[in-house]
Queue: 2 jobs
Job 1
Amino acid sequence: AVVSTQSAITAGSSGRSSPSPQSRTRKPSPKRRTSVPDRRSFNNSSRSHNSSANTPSKFLGSDRAGLESYLAARREKREEREQEQREHEREDRKRREKKQKRDKMKPEKTEKKQDDPTAPNYEKSGLLNEAQMTYKGIKIKYAEPHEARIPKTKWRLYPFKGEDALPTMYIHRNSGYLIGRERKIVDIPADHPSCSSQHAVIQFRLVDHVRQDGSETKKVKPYLLDLESTNGTFLNNEKIDPKRYYELKEKDIIKFGFSTREYVLLHEHSEGVAEIEN
C-alpha cells in the first residue's frame, strides 16, 4: 500500500510541466489613473466652508428672530461707533476754534531792536500812564479799578475829636476819596504828623450782592484801602493790611495813624443821623 501511494505521487508529479523562467517573472500591470480633485473646486469649497463658519446662522441656527436681533445689535454698535467718532470730531473742531481765538488775542511779537541807536523806538515807555497818574506835578499812588461806581446811597463821614463833633463829610458825590496829608491831591485831608501824604482810600465798587431772599444782584458798596502808609489804618480799632480792600458797613469807625480823630460811617437812613445833624 505504501508502494502504491508513492507511485501515484510520482506519476502525478511527472504529469505536470515545470514552469519556465520567463513565466516566473510577472509583467507590470498598467498604472491606474487616480482622479485628482480640481484645485478651483477645492478652493471654492474651502471658501464656502469658511464663510459659512462666520455667518450668524452658525450661532443662531435657523431662528429668524434671533438672527434679526443679532443684526440689530451689530447695527446699534456701528451707530454708536459713528456717534463717538462724530463727537470726537466736534470736540477737536471746538479745540481748534478756541486755539485760533487765543492766537488772535495774543499780542503780536515786537520786532527785534535794531543795532542802530539812532533808529526810532516804538515800544511802550510807560510815560503816558505815568502822566495820567500825575496831578499837579505829584505822582498818585492809587488808580481806581474798573468796577468803580458813584453810589446812589448818600454815605457820610461824621468825624469826632474826643467828644467834639466836627463838620460832616459827604462822600456820595464821587466814586473814590483819597485821604492823606498832601492837600494838593487828597480829597479828605489828614493833617496829623503820623499820617502819610497819601495814606488811604475810600473806594465805592460795584460788586456781587445776595438779597435776603437768596437772589443775586449787583450793588455799589464802600471799601477801605490802605496805601502802604507808615503808621497804618485802623478799622474798628483793628489795623488792616495794606493794599487790600475791606468792605465798610454802617456805623464802622475809621482811624488813620496815631491821630485821635475817629470817622464814623453812616448814611441818610441811618438811625440817629437827624439828631447828629441838628
Note: The first strand starts at residue 134 and ends at 135.
Job 2
Amino acid sequence: SSGINAEWPLRPGNKAIRVKDVKAIKNDPQVTSWDGFSDLVLTPLLRLGPYLSYSPILFTKILRIFGKYIEEHKDNLLGDVFAGQIMTITNDVILPSLSMVSFSYNLTALIWNYLQHFPYHLRYRLYAKWKNESYRKNPLLIVTKAETVQKSRYILKRLTKENVKPFGRQIGKVSHCNPCVIFEQILSQIQRYDNMILPIVSALKYLGLLGFDVLSYCIIEALSDPDREKQKRKKYRLRLCVDTTA
C-alpha cells in the first residue's frame, strides 16, 4: 500500500526508529536543571560524536543552550564543572561535527558565542586537538579532510589579485567549518611563494570570528617549529604575512 511507513531511517547505522519508539521517548524524564542536562543529555552526546552533524536542529539547540549557560557563568568558568563538561563536548562532539557540515556560518557563530568567553590557552588546546587528532579518529572525517584539502588547493591555485572577491568568499565558506585544514594549506602556500601574501591577506576579510581565532593558533603553531635553521626563510614569510594583516 501507499501508506506511511512505520519505520524511519536513522543515520549512522542501519537501525530505524519506529512509531512506538517515538511514543516511548515522550515518557522519558524531562530536563529541568543544569545538573539534569548534564546527566541526561551530555552522556548521549558523547556517544554521538561527529554524527551530531546529521541533525542540524539538535546541533543548533545544543549550541544555544551552551551559549546561554556560559553567558550566565562567564565570570567563573575555570572553576565550573559544567563549563568543563562543555569544553569536553566541544572537543569530542561539536568541532568534529562542524567539520562534517558542508557550510553553516550560523553554527560557527553559535560556537564562537560561547568559546570567546574561555581563555585563549583553553581555546588553542581545542584547536590543536581538532587539527591534529580529530581528523584521524573517524573515517568520515578522514574523507572530509581529504576533500577539503583538494578544494583548498583548487581555490589557492586560482587566487590572484584580480579575483580576490569570488575566491576569497570561497575561502571564507571553507573556513567556517574546516578552518584548520584550509589554513594549513594557506600557510604552506605563503611559506613557498612571497607573491601569494597580498591576495591571501585580502581574502582573509571573508573569515568569521572563529576563523580568525583558529588562524591565530595555526600561525603560532607554524612559527613554533623547532627546526629553526631549516625553517628560517619560511618563518620570515609568515611574519611578513602577520605584519601585512595587521
Note: The longest helix spans residues 139-158.
